[in-house]
Amino acid sequence: MSARREWPGWDPRKGTGRGGRVLRILVVCGVVAALTLAGMAVGGVWWATDHYGDRVARIPHAFPTGPRPPASARHDDGTTFLIAGVDSRSKRPTTGTDATARLWTYGAQRSDTLMLIHLAPGKGSASVLSIPRDSWVPISGHGSAKINAAFSWGGPPLLIRTVEQLTRTRIDHFGVIDWHGFKSLTDAVGGVPVTVEGTSYDPELHHRFTAGTHLMNGDEALAYVRQRHGVPGGDLARIQRQQRFLRALLTRVRGNVSITDPLRTSRTLDAVTRTVSVDDRMSNGDLRDLVMGLRRLGADDTHFTTAPVVRADWVGRQSVLILDRAKLRARWRAVEAGQPSGRRK
User: Fold this and answer.
1) Helix or strand or coil: residue 316?
2) Rounded distance, CA 260 to CA 165, Å?
3) CA 291 to chain CA mean position, Å
4) Of 249, 337, 242, residue with least CA distance to 33
5) What is the DSSP letter of 99?
């Protein structure tokens, strides 16, 4: 293996950005929707987007250089985001303004969760496509490997290039949160209520899950979304839990952000800025436009799907998932054409 390399230009301690980078994660956890649904006046939204947008950690040079896919001819003029949850070996936070370690060091982080998100024009709906971490895909300069290796080998630029080549779609923005941030955000909203369908035990995480609805704190929620052992379905079942958790988190955050409770609202939005890092390509003006357009977007307007899998297989000693790339690309083209479920009308 080559010597460990640091991603040039990234210093988490200088990472507070001025643009609308916050949106990438806010879309997922419902903060943007919560701001507008809380009935804030235009002046309040103007202040909030500047105040919190200025405090979010930004990622310079997040996008790959060289040729990239053009926007699809059937594109509905919506916006596409790539969101990654990173499993870092660092004992210190690597994302958000809390970060005291580098976002990316060669071989030290993997993208444990990967979601492609498309916001329709007018922001009336969102589509989320989960890509399994064990998906066996081509990675530029490295042959074929599990998709989570792309971030490990090349940070955000290689991960974005890999997903763009896989889906043949152009990614407009990128956001990332590590497990430190995930736990902190969950705790900041007072925990998230999640319904566990059946009792199970994960021997790798040493955690027992009891059937029923539980208010999960950060540690419990992290174990829940990471569980791969002790339940049928492996990585695909884990994706279902991640999507279920995001729905519950969105609802929780919407309830936490209210014009009548500014202290709780501030605490929740502060948690977002502390825990997420996003690209620096959007201005605060762009963010304000999106906030105003997202006023009606809620959990029921967010449609979840998973990249289609042909089969589970083995490559050497690695357990991998083989995707149906043609079906995946067709499904995403349908999303870009304005069909939130990804099915052609």
Assistant:
1) coil
2) 46
3) 18
4) 249
5) -
Q: Determine the Cα–Cα distance for residues 122 and 46; give it in Å rounded to an integer.
A: 18
* DSSP states along 17-40: -SSGGGHHHHHHHTHHHHHHHTT-
Alpha carbons 194 and 287: distance in angstroms, whole number: 30
pLDDT value for 13: 39
Tell me the pairing of strands 79-88 and 173-178: parallel
How many other CB atoms are found less than 10 A from the CB of residue 320? 21
> Each residue of 312-321: pLDDT tens digit?
999 999 999 9
Domains assigned to the chain: 12-189+258-336 (3.40.630.190)
Residue 218: pLDDT over 70 = yes
**DSSP secondary structure letter of residue 11:** -
Residues 259-304 have pLDDT tens digits of: 556 677 777 777 777 888 888 886 665 556 555 555 556 667 778 8
Quick check: 320 and 134 in contact, CB under 8 A?
Answer: yes
DSSP 12: G
41 has a pLDDT exceeding 80: no
pLDDT at position 251, please? 75
Reported as half-sphere exposure (CB side, CA atoms, 13 A), residue 253 has a value of: 31
302-314: b (≥16 Cβ within 10 Å) or e:
bbbbbbebeeeee
Q: Are 120 and 126 in contact (CB under 8 A)?
A: yes
Q: Which residue type, as a one-letter code, is found at position 197?
A: E
